[in-house]
């Protein structure tokens, strides 16, 4: 059975590399973070990495329909790309998307179309996204949240959403790091 990543990387590249090269670098960095926590994911490592490289495709000019990138990306993956349902749901709900959907008046729409994936996978994707800069390099969630707030402005919808989501983003990061530390303590 082919790996999900063998399908996901070329698709994400085709949608992001040319029109949004910085966003493409970010997605590559998020996928790289996913590989660093593979030890706590077992058979879901490939799934997480595929979702990581695809998580921001909803920003692609040809896909941006609602202006809410998790929903636009998930709809494309479902309706046009024939993606694995688990990848679709991770993309739809990445990085506390339900909070942004609520701020946009789209929470019912998001949750009505796409069920949330398991908590540990949602945590893992949030960790990967919020520990990666827009240029794809490693960072920490505090600096990432500050960068997002600075880029969009503290009074913007995104600025307010990311500050509201901050406690959950930090909790996701903590839970993932706890799982990684516990896995490293396990004897081989």
From TrEMBL:
Q: Which Pfam families match?
A: HD
UniProt-listed CDD domains: HDc
Q: What SUPFAM superfamilies does the record point to?
A: HD-domain/PDEase-like
Q: Which domain of life is it from?
A: Bacteria
Name the InterPro entries for this protein: HD/PDEase_dom, HD_domain, HDIG_dom
Q: Which UniProt keywords apply?
A: Hydrolase
Residues forming the HD/PDEase domain are 19-177
Tell me a Gene Ontology molecular-function term this record carries.
hydrolase activity
NCBIfam families the UniProt entry points to: HDIG
What is this protein identified as? Phosphohydrolase
């Amino acid at each position: 059975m082919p790996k999900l990543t063998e399908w996901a990387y070329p698709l994400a590249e085709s949608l992001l590399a040319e029109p949004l090269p910085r966003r493409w670098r970010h997605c590559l960095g998020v996928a790289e973070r996913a590989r660093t926590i593979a030890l706590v994911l077992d058979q879901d490592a490939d799934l997480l990495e595929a979702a990581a490289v695809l998580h921001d495709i909803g920003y692609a000019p040809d896909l941006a329909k609602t202006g809410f990138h998790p929903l636009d990306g998930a709809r494309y993956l479902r309706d046009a790309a024939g993606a694995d349902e688990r990848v679709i749901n991770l993309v739809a709900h990445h990085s506390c998307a339900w909070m942004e959907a609520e701020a946009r008046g789209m929470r019912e729409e998001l949750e009505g179309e796409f069920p949330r994936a398991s908590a540990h996978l949602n945590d893992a994707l949030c960790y990967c996204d919020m520990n990666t800069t827009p240029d794809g390099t490693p960072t920490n969630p505090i600096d990432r949240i500050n960068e997002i707030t600075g880029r969009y402005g503290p009074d913007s919808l995104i600025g307010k959403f990311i500050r509201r989501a901050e406690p959950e983003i930090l909790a996701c990061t903590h839970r993932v790091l706890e799982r990684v530390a516990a896995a490293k303590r396990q004897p081989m």
